Amino acid sequence: MKDTLKHKGLRNQLADVLEAKGIEDATVLRAIKNIPRHLFLDSSFESHAYQDKAFPIGANQTISHPFTVAFQSELLQLAPSLKVLEIGTGSGYQTAVLLKCGVRVYTIERQLELFKKTSLFFKKMGYRPKKVIFGDGYKGLPEEAPFDRIVVTAGAPEVPKALLSQLKIGGRLVIPIGFEEQVMTLFVRNSQKEFVKSEYGSFKFVPLLEHKN
Asked: Could you confirm whether 198 is annotated as catalytic?
């Protein structure tokens, strides 16, 4: 598949749709306009790639709705050079949005099939996260902590304590919490022990799975 002028026009239209739905962050909208989402999908979905829909990507996982990706990214309040941990690399689309926003990304994927596929795709496309790790997102990445921002791209029944502990003071964690349906939740770390929690409505994600030893 190629990236054509038609694709670019569809991306501009998608960004307009997301803006109409309430996305205000100009940097995030610019990233949506610049990233060829159709290349992150199976070719059979190409004609639908710039609709605000989720699609399967293998290993019982999905690529999130563009609105969800943009909404999580906006909640993070990204700024150049921030250190960001992403839990759930998936197709790599959210990773690409983060990178286009100028941050340093460390991303973890627990599905080996997706880890291998997406790692190769990043190299082919020239996306350069700081690290792409095959591992357990519940544990975070303690050896690289603390992080300015953490984003979880799967639904968790509760917030993993390891992720809260790996957040810098002043840092933001965005995570969907719940079982069948999730509530988008933001934690801001105000001090060593104080976290301020805010909720932002219902979303639907695949579950965040924990490695069972």
From this structure: no
